[in-house]
Amino acid sequence: MTSSALTSSTSFVDPSWHKDTAHPYYKDSQRKLQRFIREYVDSEVTPNAGEWEEQGYVSDEAFQRHAQLGFLAAAMFPLQKDCQG
Predict the structure, then answer these.
(1) For 24, which DSSP code?
(2) How far apart are CA 9 and CA 29, in angstroms?
(3) Conformational region of residue 12, where left means phi above 0, alpha means psi within -120 to 50, and beta covers everything else
(4) What's the confidence (pLDDT) of residue 79?
(5) Are 31 and 45 in contact (CB under 8 A)?
(6) What are phi and psi of 44, to 5 degrees?
(7) 35 sits in which H/E element
(8) Beta carbons of 14 and 23 less than 8 angstroms apart
């Protein structure tokens, strides 16, 4: 098990990236997608999030890149209050 303040000794309650053991409900394709998304967020979203927050929008280039990768369903912008469930 990876050492982290977020890990628990209770089975299957931690995010899977905090564990070194195989998860019985994830297939290799799901783990591959999870790694790809984590790498994308770590390299493209997280370093720019502060700037986007300050300027109040995500640049067109970043939004287009996000869409090209198929992440358009994940909102990268704040929704108006009347659009929030």
Answers:
(1) T
(2) 26
(3) left
(4) 65
(5) no
(6) -115, -35
(7) helix 28-40
(8) no
Report how far residue 26's alpha carbon sits from residue 43's, in angstroms, rounded to the nearest whole number: 24
Tell me: the pLDDT tens digits for 32-84? 888 888 889 899 999 999 999 999 988 889 988 988 888 876 555 666 676 65
Question: Scanning the structure block, which residue is given the tokens 């986007």?
Answer: 52
Amino acid residing at 85? G
- Nearest partner of 52 among 62, 66, 43, 41, judged by Cα: 62
Distance (Å) of CA 29 to CA 13, 24, 54: 21, 13, 36
Residues in CB range of 28: below 8 A, 6 or more apart: none
Give whole-number Cα distances, 72 to 32, 67, 75, 85, in Å.
19, 5, 7, 19
| Helix, strand, coil content of the chain in percent (nearest 5) | 50, 0, 50
